[in-house]
Specification:
Shape: flat
Oligomer: single chain
Largest sheet: none
Radius of gyration: 28 Å
Order of helices and strands: HHHH
Structural class: mainly alpha
Mean pLDDT: 83
Low-confidence stretches: none
């Protein structure tokens, strides 16, 4: 049963590690921005004289918050990406096709696996949320792909019409070869 699967992305063994790294990087970057702003903002709210605090103290507080919290958010994003990719690869292997249904089911399973420590009802609720989020993402991606394909086909048809008109115009000036250009204006 080892048929070839047409992948729309990187083949599966490398995809898991790629998504782990990408998830960690996105989480760390987004967490750095979030926690830096949060560190600056909460310093101003918690201390009465923080509005008048030196700028260095605000920046230092934001950087300390980034150092302490951003890697945790990056790790959570990496964990989500790794589990999602692993389940997606298992579904691709089992179903022998790479389609949006695999991603939706992988989002459902990933949401449930990550929330299983909270109990069955919490895990099911999080699984539903994960499935719905991935369904929305895949639907929007499919719609955007269809719109872009339609625009590309319209563009190609217009280019063909222009090329045919150019060829007819050149052939009307004489000659069988539309690419033979006479530089003498007549």
């Amino acid at each position: 049963m080892s048929r070839g699967v047409q992948y729309n992305r990187t083949p599966c063994p490398g995809r898991v590690f790629e998504d782990l790294g990408n998830g960690f990087a996105m989480g760390c970057f987004g967490g750095s921005l979030l926690y830096f702003a949060k560190g600056n903002y909460f310093l101003c709210l918690t201390n009465l004289g923080a509005w008048n605090a030196p700028r260095r103290q605000r920046i230092f507080s934001g950087l300390c918050h980034v150092r302490n919290r951003a890697p945790f958010l990056g790790g959570n994003f990496g964990l989500w990406g790794g589990i999602f990719s692993s389940v997606d690869c298992l579904l691709i292997y089992y179903r022998q096709k790479d389609d949006p249904y695999n991603a939706i089911a992988a989002g459902f399973i990933t949401g449930g696996v990550l929330a299983i420590r909270g109990g069955i009802s919490v895990a099911f609720r999080q699984a539903m949320i994960g499935g719905v989020i991935l369904m929305v993402i895949e639907t929007v991606g499919t719609l955007m792909q269809a719109i872009m394909m339609k625009k590309q086909l319209e563009f190609q048809a217009e280019m063909q019409r222009q090329e045919i008109a150019r060829m007819r115009g050149m052939m009307a000036r004489g000659g069988d070869n539309p690419y033979a250009v006479s530089y003498n204006e007549e």
